[in-house]
Amino acid sequence: MKKIKLFATLFCAVALASCNYLDFDETSGLYTHDDIYKYFAQTKQMLTNVYSYMPQDLGAIDGAMRDCASDDAEYGNTGGSVQLFNNGNWSALTTVDTAWNLYYGIRAANEFIASVAEVDFSRYENDTSYQNWIRQLRYFPYEARMLRAYYFFELAKRYGDIAMPVKMLSTEEANSIGKTPFDEVIAFIVDECNACASDGNLPDTYVGEPNNETGRITRGFALALKTKALLYAASELHNPTMDVERWKRTAQAAQDLIDTGLYQLDPEDKCNNATSKENVLVRMNGDSQEFELNNFPIRFTEGTRTNTASATFPTQNLVDAFQTINGYPVTLGENGWICEDPGFDPQHPYENRDPRFARTILANGSTFKGSTIETFIGGNDYAAVSAGGSPTGYFLRKYIQESTSFVPDQLVSNKHHWVIYRYAETLLTYAEAMIEAFGDPSYTDETFKYSAAWALNQVRANAGMPDVTVSGKEEFLEALRNEWRVEFAFEDHRFWDVRRWKIGDATQRDIHGVSIEQNGAGNYSFQRALYETRTWSERMYLYPIPQSELFKNANLNPQNIGW
Questions:
Q1: pLDDT score, position 33
Q2: Residues 337 and 271 in one domain
Q3: From CA 459, how far away is CA 171, in angstroms rounded?
Q4: In angstroms, rounded to a whole number, what is the distance separating the alpha carbons of residues 311 and 292?
Q5: Tens digit of each residue's pLDDT (9 = 90 or more) over 164-198
Q6: Among positive and negative, which fits the CA dihedral 23, 28, 29, 30?
Q7: 277: burial class by Cβ within 10 Å (0-12, 13-18, 19+)?
Q8: Which domain holds residue 250?
Q9: What is the distance between the alpha carbons of residues 328 and 321, in angstroms, rounded to a whole number?
Q10: Cα gap 120→21, rounded to integer Å
Q11: pLDDT in tens, 304-345
Q12: Residue 386 lies in a domain
């Protein structure tokens, strides 16, 4: 058998054989590197492998959603690795969520970009599939470039300055590459997005393209990633002087995507809905029961959950972010509910709330699988955390497929498609950039056609909520940040927003739940309950570079500040 060339794994002293190949067995002798790129199907499989590294958070941290390391959620397992974020015991030696595997994806992308440039399928030009192959092939290098740019962004938002290999590396090169400053990483990403979004290099949609595939990189995602990268570069963490020019660039990028008209807000649920007109990029997944097994209220798992403390539980901190349907704030105090809405009923505090509440959280009185959720003391869903009960008095609803069934002989599994980017993010990005750049929610000019208030209220109107009417910058920012929180709860935003806004010290301390008692007349008393006090320090705005990688490559120094 011809020996397959080995590719150096980034930061690894020993090269790994063929792990960037997809779906072939090197021991079979059927395919070598050169053979793979002789055939369209195998070439496409190599690109599919690059896609396979797209991050998602259906329990990314050993079963816990990343929001369990924010004030939005708690993880049932008190010994889970996500708790290292909360108790301050993570370090360069004890790392969490390193995302270092994305360098495998980057290496696979670099290999593919170089190899696909040399493919020649002209010998098949008389094949009936040839024209379809060529039509797909023209997008392949740009898809790979955008995936690589996306993986660089995911690493940069964790570490700031990162190693940024843009070609295949030898072992020696991999173990000596230095870091690229964060702003240069963002500049590279923006340039890649501009190049891939221009000249028809990527389609607006794959509907009408061969196979009508869903979940592939489009021009819209190139524009979206540019917008997101510029947002992070403009935010206080990476823009301590709050240079307004950065915010203007972000607003322009968001407006460019708005003006394409490619996407529209969808009043229906976008999670698990790969065909929603709001979704820009979705990671497609197969059928599974795992997310429900971990997160259903335990009585609906029919005794099949072996790890009873494996669920993600929303906090009272998050519940307090959801207004009434009339736009009034609601807060649970130590002695009950506080709300000025004349229609608010403190005996039924979860009714007549922002409609997004019911799509995000299961609370006492919620209807689920034909039953009523009971989290009051002694209720059907009240139990010790070790037995599957909620430490906060709430259960997760978002991304849950209610039709999933664990009933013997009636098992049902469902697909869980992870939304990587949707259009509402563009509108909130535009609103944030405009208010930071100009300080007036109503500001427009010849360049920026839409106001910050318009963009924010588009999202609220889509959710069935009234307009925000405040006129001051600080009040508007407060409302906008709350909108980010409720619109994108459990979509892997809050953890990162806390960091880019640098609000960790003010928000990531006390985690509350609710304690509910029912009296003999069927009435309830609600009390705010402190569940956990967490640790926060300034260094936590960025991750530590794993010490194991610093041992392999001293050029990854200096370590991030404080670690």
A1: 81
A2: no
A3: 49
A4: 9
A5: 999 999 889 989 999 999 999 999 999 999 999 99
A6: negative
A7: middle
A8: 241-283+421-508
A9: 10
A10: 19
A11: 998 888 999 999 999 999 999 999 999 999 889 999 999 999
A12: yes
